[in-house]
Amino acid sequence: MNEALLSAFRKRLEKELAALHEETRTGAYGARPVTLDQQSVGRLSRMDAMQQQAMAKATQARRKTQVRRIQAALTRLKEEEFGYCSECGEKIALARLEFDPTIPTCIGCAAS
């Protein structure tokens, strides 16, 4: 893989990482604890708030997983292992990397 292509993947990964950090910063409000004061919030409103909190926590978990995947891909770029399967060492198809540059395995190893 040539240097220009590796640079393009690096920029894409860094941009996605920055966007995830921004989403995490702005989305933290939704995961705050739900108050159980029945005088200020009715039962249905509280249930709705708890559901929204659960969805916000699930979204945060997905973001954390994606951040770890991006950081691992950036590490592979730095160590000049990007584009090679972490299982068998063969090259990962360019179309597969273009679809998701965080993919660590070739299609053969992913299928098994």
UniProtKB/TrEMBL annotation:
Organism (species): Rhodovulum imhoffii
UniProt keyword annotation of DNA-binding present: no
Xref: InterPro entries: Znf_DskA_TraR, Znf_DskA_TraR_CS
The protein, known as: TraR/DksA family transcriptional regulator
Zinc finger (dksA C4-type): 85-109
A Pfam family hit: zf-dskA_traR
Upper classification of the organism: Bacteria, Pseudomonadati, Pseudomonadota, Alphaproteobacteria, Rhodobacterales
Source organism, top-level taxon: Bacteria
A molecular function GO annotation: zinc ion binding
UniProt-listed PANTHER family: GENERAL STRESS PROTEIN 16O, RNA POLYMERASE-BINDING TRANSCRIPTION FACTOR DKSA-RELATED
